[in-house]
Structures are given as C-alpha cells and as structure tokens.
Design brief:
Two copies of one chain form a homodimer. Chain A is an all-alpha fold. Helices cover about 80% and strands about 0% of the residues of chain A. Chain A has helices at about 1-15, 25-30, 35-40, 45-70, 75-85, 95-105, 110-130, 130-150, 155-170. In chain A, helix 6 (about 95-105) runs antiparallel to helix 7 (about 110-130), helix 7 (about 110-130) crosses helix 8 (about 130-150) and helix 8 packs antiparallel against helix 9. The interface between A and B is large, with 47 and 46 residues. The structure holds a DNA duplex.
DNA sequence: TAGCGTAGAGAACGCCCGTTCTCTGCGCCA
DNA sequence: TGGCGCAGAGAACGGGCGTTCTCTACGCTA
C-alpha cells in the first residue's frame, strides 16, 4: 500500500537524520509515491510526522510487550529488551525525545504525540509493577538509559539501569 | 562585549526554539551585531552553535557545583537543584539532549560537545559518590528526570528521582 | 581640510524548503 | 475508435536559509 510505503520512508529518514533535515522530496523519491498523491494521503509535513510517530509508538510498545510477556522477571525483561534495541545498528535514541527536542517549540501536535508515548510507557510500567511510585522511578531509569545509551553510544547503560531497577523494586 | 551579546542571543533563541528553527538574521537582530562582524567572530553557524553549547555546559556545571558545595547531602542537593531548574519559566529540557537529537546525524562537532557534557556530569557524580557504579546509576536518574520533567512538563520528577537515588546510595 | 581605511547596514546569491499547479499520457466506456 | 477523466512527473512559486559582497559614511592621520 502506498500509505505504508510513505510511512516506511518517513520513519527511515526522519529517525536517521532528524525531521527538519529531511525534505518532502526525499520522502517522495524514497517511497516512490508522487508528491501529489503524498499530499492526498497526508495534507502537510506535520501530519506525516504525526502519523510516523503514532505508528512508531504503537509498534514500539507492542514489541516491548511481546518480548516481556513470556518472561518471569518482567522488569528485568524490559531492560533486556532495551539492551537489544540499543544494540541495533541504526539506533539513534528515542524518536519521541528527539522530535520533542527538535519541534516542541514549533508544533503542539508533535509535542502531544511525544507526551502521549511517554504516558503510555509509564502506564505500562505501572501495570507491570502494581506500585505506582516504584514504577515511576523505573520509568526514570528507562528514560535515562535511552539518553545515555544514545549520546554515549553505550548499550550497556541498559544493564546499569537493570541493576538499579532491581534495587528499587526489591527495596 | 560583542561576542557575549552574540552568545547571549544565540543561547536564548537556540534553547527556546531549537537550532534549525533560528536563522542567523535573528541572531543578528537580537544581538545587535552586524552580520559581517558576526561572521568574523564565528565563521559559521555550526561554530556559533558549538560555542553556545560549550559556554552553556560550563555555566550549567558551575551552577550545579555552586549549589551543591555547601550542602551536607550532596546527592540530594543535586536533585534539589534540578527541581529548581525544572521550575524555571523557560525550561525546555537539556540543551545537549535536544541538540543531539536534532543534529547528531548532521554534525560530528555538535555530537562531540553533547557527549563531552554528559561525560563531565558523570565524572562530577563519580566525584560526589566515590562508588563509580552507584554514580552511574544516579546519572541515569538525573537524565531520566530531565527527560520526564520536560516532556511531561512535571518538575516533580526531580523528587521521584531523589527518592530513588536515596535508595540506591544507601543500599 | 583632504585622503585613507575600517566597519556597518543590508542587498544579493545560490540553494533548498513546503506546497501547488500544469501538462502530459494512459485507461476506461460508448 | 474517439473522447473523457484521472493520475503521475516534475516545474513553478514564494519564502527563508547560510553566507558573501557592495556601498556608504564615519574617524583618524598629515
């Protein structure tokens, strides 16, 4: 489907290079969808960015859930999954943190999507832990691990976060 | 001094709106320094961004040190200081995380400055704690608190991080 | 006072952006 | 087969970007 091709191209390019660094022409040539059709599917670049982020949010959380579901140590599994993610070749941090830093001053819609993603992650952790304040602390470790892993290019941040989470959960 | 005026304008505008959203003309009109002189002081926009980030890095860490120095509970004081920062009117997250998300794919120099800032923060925490692996865990809480406070617009993230840090340090 | 060098203001340059429009050509129905 | 409509390719548009250049006017030296 054309919409999927456009979103695939958008995700590859926006995540890899940043949103403002990618023009609509590059989305066109990568997706193979004409500019006219592209604007029929998404009436503006902002709408395309929002669609890209929404799809990524849902897939990201579904992947995390799928990995954690079978495991006994749910919290530990979250950080194992993060470590896997950090180790992927194209890893460049959290798309939502990056978009927020780039565009929160310009676009309330993009700000809202980023906020929603973090809300959902927090809710997921609360469901995993049954103690809200511990879950909120674990969320801080998750976000911190993502930031440190990307900026320092150091996937092992996930293991340090895992060790810290174990202390918080057991304590 | 003109250089200071330019850096002040750059910091205000880049931090508030993002780097790519601010043009050199706006730096000129805000600082009152002519474009020609501006390019004598900083030979390119990238050089100006690097200078802005370097000055901010040093001032940020000096402010943190100044606040923490007198306190008994050094680690607690770090999070108190963060809470103060999060509560400032123009708070929009960490300039280095934001710049990294926006430009790490484009500019190795900016990437290096962001990485250096985080290295220095880590080193500072290690000096405070004398136990490197605990310090690295506290770093995750610091970064996580910054991210959550900015995206959720919730300065209280600092208090949750403080409580978690107390558990990690005492444990 | 005459002449020179410097610095400032802002126009100009080439390029790329997001978005729209035009023009071409192909597929469908009578 | 002839006429119609849709869709694709890409040119066009207005504007903004980073950077450079021109031109003016002022201040110092003799």
């Amino acid at each position: 489907m054309q919409e999927t091709a456009v979103l695939d191209a958008a995700e590859d390019l926006f995540y890899e290079r940043g949103i403002q660094a990618v023009g609509m022409d590059q989305i066109r040539s990568t997706s193979g969808v004409s500019l006219k059709r592209l604007y029929q599917l998404f009436p503006s670049k902002e709408a395309l960015v929002v669609a890209y982020l929404k799809r990524r949010d849902e897939r990201w959380r579904a992947d995390l859930r799928a990995y954690v579901d079978g495991k006994d140590d749910k919290v530990g599994a979250v950080f194992e999954w993060l470590h896997q993610w950090f180790s992927e070749p194209g890893f460049r941090g959290c798309a939502f943190i990056n978009s927020f830093g780039e565009l929160s001053a310009t676009s309330p819609k993009i700000t809202a999507v980023a906020r929603h993603h973090k809300d959902e992650v927090r809710a997921y952790l609360r469901g995993l832990l049954r103690d809200d304040s511990t879950a909120d602390q674990v969320l801080l470790l998750v976000e911190g691990a993502i930031v440190v892993a990307s900026i320092q290019n150091d996937p092992a941040a996930a293991w340090r976060a895992k060790a810290a989470a174990e202390v918080l959960v057991s304590g």
